[in-house]
Specification:
Number of domains of chain A: 2
CATH topology of the largest domain in chain A: Chorismate lyase
Largest interface: A-B, 69 and 71 residues
Largest sheet of chain A: 6 strands, antiparallel
Oligomer: homodimer
Chain lengths: ~240, ~240
DNA sequence: TACGGCGTGTTGTCTGACAATTGACCCGGC
DNA sequence: GCCGGGTCAATTGTCAGACAACACGCCGTA
């Protein structure tokens, strides 16, 4: 059902899971035969993995797994809950509040609706409050029955599981702020504490914004990494 | 001199600069002919651009520029200076200090040398101090004559221009901290101000760390964005 | 010992073809 | 007039085979 190059990319990803850093992969003709695809399709899949730094290809030498492990960073769009689960951290949702209200002009333009649902809650890791999250989502994007029943802390996971609307990416702005007012209260920290703040818009494949979220994180528990790669002639200003 | 697919990717990037969102690109055979490469090479270059969300390919339809513009974010490894130049901001280097010293055990292990050069300086944008940067680089990575003559604020730009060693990516940890001590002094802000901090290791293509840098940014002038994409079958856990 | 050519294996690129998919067009039936 | 289905052209996806460029070890030679 799925495209050959998707199956191939997935098969390669699994192969990499079982590989040691520094290990050399079979040659392209051999791998293509093993996976039952042509070399062209194999290379298409490899390009994607190379772009994410999972493999290194060197002409005349071969393809190998990079010696340094690139931990999963912010590039992949996953929820706090999923992030935590991957590192074996226990998280739960604290007090939550679901508010229906009219959208302000900015939200109306961005989300394309005049009524929004605002979902705010704190996140606890190992019993300690670590984050305060606020999602603003257009009314009707999620049936309220679903929201009431299946929401366990992550709007993102809810949307991803439903698959409707189909999400593509989010764009976040990162900043540092002081804790104050409601946010300080919810996080149970004194006003004036330092917080890391993410303000993100969640886009569908059509370029539509479905959710606008703000996250305030206490330092310590979560480490946010970002991998920055040198362009390979991809930027016009070179 | 450079590889065909690099030239192709660069040419495509320039083409995209001149394109409107929603615009449909010429078909692959036509584009390949225009750029003077085979369709295989063209597709290799397109894969990279598709992976970064710059183009969308749909079988039976064509290739087009996505309706939403993804501004350049943190994914690309560029210096503050380059970032500023792209948005038309005037930046300059303030007081700088170059210190030769023995490396502490952690640095020795990471950088693989026992002597390091520590370069610290403040960055000014439009006359205002906006950042304080500290690079710790292994002695011998850059000839000192070059460092003295060609350093104008960015170690990264210096390394990229020299092309030796060949850089591949950096991994940064993002956090929020209070300004204090030397850092507050240099930035000319009261102790206790809130700063955004990036702590990065700079890797070569061989996985070697050549530079460890810390950056402290005052809020306001620079906006740091990161685009997070949903996985497309590339993670083994699916 | 030092050095330079040579052979082998790998990724990079080219060529040509066919498959799968999409969207538009046309035409007939109601 | 409107709707439905079939056909067709255009486009990306995939395939197969070949050659080019490159890196590295091997071996013969000075």
């Amino acid at each position: 059902m799925s495209k050959p190059y998707q199956r191939t990319a997935h098969a390669l990803a699994e192969l990499l899971e079982r590989s040691e850093p520094g290990e050399v992969l079979p040659s392209e003709p051999r791998l293509a035969e093993q996976l039952g695809v042509s070399r062209a399709t194999l290379r298409e899949a490899m390009s994607a993995l190379e772009d994410r730094g999972r493999i290194v290809r060197r002409q005349g030498v071969g393809t190998y797994v990079p010696p340094t492990i690139i931990e999963a960073g912010l590039e992949e769009l996953i929820s706090i809950e999923t992030m935590a689960a991957r590192v074996g951290l226990e998280v739960e949702m604290g007090d939550s509040e679901i508010l229906h209200r009219n959208s302000d002009p900015e939200e109306a333009q961005l989300l394309g609706v005049d009524q929004v649902i605002e979902i705010s809650r704190v996140i606890l890791a190992e019993g300690e409050t670590v984050a305060y999250l606020v999602d603003t989502i257009g009314k009707g994007m999620i049936p309220e029955a679903v929201l009431a029943k299946e929401f366990h802390g992550s709007v993102l996971d809810l949307l991803l599981e439903r698959g409707e609307p189909a999400l593509e990416y989010s764009k976040s702005e990162i900043s540092a702020v002081f804790a104050e007012g409601r946010i300080a209260d919810r996080l149970e920290v004194p006003a004036g504490s330092v917080l890391l703040r993410f303000e993100a818009s969640l886009f569908t494949k059509d370029g539509q914004v479905v959710d606008r979220s703000q996250g305030y994180f206490l330092p310590g528990t979560f480490k946010f990494h970002v991998v920055r790669r040198v362009g390979r002639g991809l930027s016009a200003t070179a």
